[in-house]
Design a protein that fits this description.
Shape: elongated
Mean pLDDT: 90
Structural class: mainly alpha
Strand content: under 5%
Oligomer: single chain
Largest sheet: none
Number of helices: 2
């Protein structure tokens, strides 16, 4: 079987939409994690949830920055 070496076109037309979906999904996960904190007595688990949500906040900042970049790229096309 011959392999097609022709690269796929770079289609970024829906990147902003995908990134916005990732932002929404991350926010939902943060909210669920915060709700779950009320149901644990484990200090270790509480610290784990807090640490994970902090990483999620950092991811949200990165997603939002990338959305701005992609939106600017789409405007330039």
């Amino acid at each position: 079987m011959a392999w097609n070496s022709k690269p796929n076109p770079d289609d970024r037309s829906d990147n902003v939409e995908k990134l916005q979906g990732m932002v929404q999904h991350t926010i939902e996960n943060m909210e669920k994690a915060e709700e779950s904190m009320a149901f644990t007595d484990s200090e270790e688990q509480l610290q784990s949830i807090k640490a994970k949500n902090e990483r999620r906040r950092e991811s949200l900042e990165a997603f939002r920055s990338e959305i701005k970049d992609e939106a600017g790229q789409n405007d330039n096309r």
